[in-house]
Amino acid sequence: MTDSGEARQSVLEPSATTEESEAGTAPRKTEKQRGLWGEAWRDLRRRPLFIASAILIAILLVIAAFPGLFASADPNTQLLSKARQDPSGEAWFGYDHLGRDIYARVIHGARASIIVGVFSTLLAVLLGSLIGLVGGYFGGKTDSSLSRFAEIFLGLPFVLGAIVILSTFNAGIEGNPGTVRVMTQVVVTIGILAWPISMRIMRSAAITSKQQDYVKAAKALGASHGRIIFRHILPNSVAPVMVYATIALGQFIGLEATLSYLGLGLRAPVVSWGIMISDSQNYLFSAPHMLLFPAMFLVITVLAFVMLGDAVRDALDPKQS
Amino acid sequence: MTEPVLQVRDLVKHFPVTQGVVFKRTIGHVRAVDGVSFDLNKGETLGVVGESGCGKSTLAQVLMRLEQPTSGTALFEGADMFAKKGAELRELRRQMQVVLQDPYTSLNPRKTVGDIVGEPFEIHPEVAPKEDRQRRVQELLDIVGLNPGHIRRYPHQFSGGQRQRIGIARALALRPKVIVCDEPVSALDVSIQAQVMNLLGELQSEFGLSYIFIAHDLGVVRHLSDRVAVMYLGKMVETGTEDQIYEHPQHPYTQALLSSVPVPDPELRDRRETIRLSGDVPSPANPPSGCRFRTRCWRAQDLCAEQQPELEVRLDGGRIDPDAEGHPSACHFAEQHPHVVK
């Protein structure tokens, strides 16, 4: 059966020399090169959930990169005469307790939230994946000690851990630490407290794929550990971590807001949604719009990333298609 | 006669059975391979047959240096292959390759066929210069009967038989002298099995390969094997040429295995006697005393529980006679069982 199929194919596309067969297959090259990722991408493009979340994320990214395009008002100009004014044609989202334009602040706040979200996700996922790969591949004592080490961080309640880390970092500092410094601290804190989750995901995926026969075949060929880990195990274990990363990104943006709300994360004059929500806490009844708009943006952003994660998971899961 | 390519003596692989999480205690050993010896000559095929759990795949893994043996020696072209490290081990990898059982898991699904068959050249860059590799890969695909234009395809675009051909091309890339075939056709359809077996046969005569061909079915290996070794619970119970094993089997286990090979001719099928073994293979962690096959053997007597029969040339009735013509089997009551085959 196979042979006749092969014979038919080779009649259809004779492959005398390399150049010829290259040229002959060139028009169909795109189709041939589509691997599992390609299949997933084609699948993704057809999902409304993915399209909606991708459009939302794209808009948010543009806002974060060029806030000036969307809001002409300065986010830090205070007009006390306009304090807590309701939304109007002049200021769409109204003014906060210091008379700052909430629309301008929400737009300018996207950058801090997204930067923190992206970098803390990168840090947590890269750190976790690397440790998970090493633990899962080598197993035994290496794996046990790495897993126990990760459990220390998993056992720590997130907010408590963040309070301890951030207040220790800033113990000796009078007044306001610099923006970059605080942002880095928040990113590092979230990364340190969250890496064990991606480590566990990567570890279990690595354990599954290291038992596959292609790893055996690579070992029999004499492949080094590094080659087996990065060429064979990583490409076959990365999908679940990717899904986790997209969902985690939304969560981390929320976490940044939590820390800012608690006064531990970003601080004025940095504009962030968390700070705005924190500012609104004393005016919930007199000026609910101060809470409403930043919270709405936060929820939409988190939702967009979680939806993206969902869509990616479905697309990468072979059982779904 | 020339020196064998591979000489294996008393090869043993025990896996420890542990209990406890923090303080692991070894409570026993699974004797996967328990004292196996054989020679493999150049250009020869040794078929290794036995049912699931008899240690044939472990034997393959130990020979491929994927597992460390517990004890025993193996000489590859006269040099101890278990002592090789570093550069010597790399050289050994070039000489011995493996074709694995399941063509669906033995190819990395995220890599193209070109990457998979080209990987041996990346690991051993001294074999082929970089600019030559694509041509070599296409040549290999051509040799195993695949379209060389398909190097950019992914494994999931091929059928099981084609995938196994890709696996064979990968094993062949470094021009090894010995290929260990670990049940290369048992995951394939019967119609495809024959094609892959024929391909292996052609490659053998073309490149002078030696095969260790592992299967759980005597019918499959007969086609290709010069000599056959029958394994049961980690030990070889009978070895011999194709003719000796298939026409004059002496060990009851071999006879039982042979009687389970399907016979296409219904008249022959009715005439022959079928032997049905009862019970399961005993646990290799706790094998029976004496002869390991005695728990399922219809010829078993008290002697079998007391004394372990060695793999020796025996006359009918089991008397040991090293000078006699014949082939070794490990049964106190070895005798020909004429009704099995004919």
Explain what you see.
The complex is a heterodimer of chains A (321) and B (342). Chain A is mostly helical. Chain A has a single domain (36-320), classed as MetI-like fold (Orthogonal Bundle). Chain A is 72% helix and 0% strand. Chain A contains 13 helices and no strands. In chain A, α4 (36-45) crosses α13, α5 (48-65) crosses α6 and α11 (225-261) runs parallel beside α12. The longest helix of chain A is centred in the middle third of the chain and has 37 residues, at 102-138. Residues 1-32 of chain A have low confidence and may be disordered. Chain B has a domain at 249-342. In chain B, the strands form 3 sheets. Chain B has a 6-stranded mixed beta sheet with strand order 6-7-8-3-9-10. A 4-stranded antiparallel beta sheet of chain B has the order 2-1-4-5. Chain B has a two-stranded antiparallel sheet with strand order 11-12. In chain B, β4 (71-76) and β5 (79-80) form a beta hairpin. The longest helix of chain B is centred in the middle third of the chain and has 18 residues, at 190-207. The two termini of chain B are 33 Å apart. The mean pLDDT of chain B is 86.
What's the end-to-end separation of chain B, in Å?
33 Å
Which CATH top level class of chain A fits?
Mainly Alpha
- Catalogue the unreliable spans of chain A: 1-32
Helix content of chain B: 25-40%
CATH architecture descriptor name of chain A: Orthogonal Bundle
Computed Rg of chain A: 25 Å
- What value does the average pLDDT of chain A take? 82
Task: Provide the low-confidence segments of chain B as ranges.
Answer: none
User: What is the helix/strand order of chain B?
Assistant: EEEHEEHEHHHEHEHEEHHHHEE
- Outline the biggest β-sheet of chain A: none
Strand order of the largest sheet of chain B: 6-7-8-3-9-10
Helix content class of chain A: over 70%
Radius of gyration of chain B: 21 Å
The percentage of residues in β strands of chain B lies in 15-25%
Question: How many β-strand runs of chain A?
Answer: 0
Keywords (chain A): Cell membrane, Membrane, Transmembrane, Transmembrane helix, Transport
Family (chain A): Belongs to the binding-protein-dependent transport system permease family.
Protein name (chain A): Oligopeptide transport system permease protein
Membrane topology (chain A): Multi-pass membrane protein
